[in-house]
Amino acid sequence: MIPATTGAMWGFAGTTMASLMFFWSMFRQFVPNELQAYIEKFIYKMMGWVSIKFSDHTGEGLQRSKAYDSIRHYLSANSMARAQKLKANESRNMRSLVLSMDDHEEVQDVFEGVKVKWYSSVEKSGTKTKMRERRYFTLSFHRRHRGMIVDRYMEHVLREGKVIGLRNRERKLYTNNSSGDWSYYVEGRWGNVPFHHPATFETLAMDPVKKEEIKKDLIKFSKGKDYYKKVGKPWKRGYLLFGPPGTGKSTMISAMANFLEYDVYDLELTTVKDNSELKRLLLDTTGKCIIVIEDIDCSLAFTGQRRKTKEEEDDDDDDDEKKNKKKKEAEEEKKKDENKSKVTLSGLLNGIDGLWSACSEEKIIVFTTNFVDKLDPALIRRGRMDNHIEMSYCKFEGFKVLAKNYLEIESHDLYGEIKRLLEETDMSPAYVAETLMPKSDEEDADICIKRLVKTLEEEKEKARKLAEEEEKKKVEKESKKKKKAEEAEKKDKKIEGEVKEKEEK
Ligand SMILES: Nc1ncnc2c1ncn2[C@@H]1O[C@H](COP(=O)(O)OP(=O)(O)OP(=O)(O)O)[C@@H](O)[C@H]1O
Ligand SMILES: [Mg+2]
Fold it and tell me: What highest taxon heads this organism's lineage (predicted)?
């Protein structure tokens, strides 16, 4: 680990030690990595050197160590010219390569005229199929500098490393692996891909006033470190996005992530086995991130509640056979859910609250749902979900944004007509966007706008017919119910008459 060329530069006291180090630096390359560490430890001890070891995971290995990451960034930026073996990773947006120290490599650093050495190591444990890997950095220095190293040098490394890390980092989209794949040898609890979603607040079709409010809220949150500390609140914010399908809930999450430059953790609850697994996943997230749980109403134990409401709704269904069938189906689905995951509502609430209190760095959690009324109030109460945002059907302001994005126009003779139609028709921004998109090179803005008007008129007509049918069904159901009640009354009266007759006899 000591480069042959730099071995003689070490400059420690004593000719014997100097010669020992020199010989060691010559032979080091012939000694296996694991043995090198032991020999060097021995030599350092003889030289009066001490060391500090930093693991890539903290405590019980639940959480990734921020100190380790900062050291890695610091060393990548500061000591690469002196390392012999380097690892190359593709950087942000894959434009260049980022070099870092390879395993079992050593570099030296100088701070306030004092030389220190950093050694990178990796330890493997477990079986072949479930291999665990732990990485370490070991800092070695002469014991007479202990005070300065612990007080000033470490602070310098962590501060610089954090800044470099933020500058270099490529934002990521994380998804949770199922617990069967939680061997650290692969990716760990979260797999990731670079996050390159193009959505921004500028391209998001929604009420401009609401949009500005959300942006202001996000800025206030991201700059609120001292404020949250002052009021004694964990630095977190919860958003609930609700609305019909295709109204831009997922798009809004990407826009938020791009706006704040945060990572996104897409948490798929159905693959989380139980509450403790959920807690581990949440603890393994980094700061500056958005944790997303999509379609929370369709997840796990909450479906039970949702189904119960559905059953209650269906109670007035007069067809017994239908009712039994539905009940059976619901029970079967419930059983399937139970096999899949045992995460409960209280487990999720504890996981979220525990997470906030355990981490000092900023985090946003976002739930999305199509059915806000079916969620348990405990899940979305203010303080847990601070901001409830309704994503609604496309209105004229939203349409103008879409027309600008998709057709690059800001006005058209038919805008007035479209405004009127959008007020009378429920059409999602996703549908409007799809209709506006040119389908070939021959289609210009005019054709696309006319297609939208036609589609809106068709949708309006469809909705009118549907409402008519619904009304008809309702009337039929009412009259059926009335008829049934009348028949029952008649039957009761008949029985009553018969009983009376019998009594009289
Ligand atoms: N408000 C919007 N602004 C801009 N584009 C939108 C908007 N809503 C939807 N879209 C377009 O429609 C597509 C689907 O939207 P998105 O996935 O965000 O909807 P959603 O509300 O998450 O739907 P679901 O409830 O089905 O998950 C997006 O990729 C985007 O192109
Ligand atoms: Mg969505």
Answer: Eukaryota
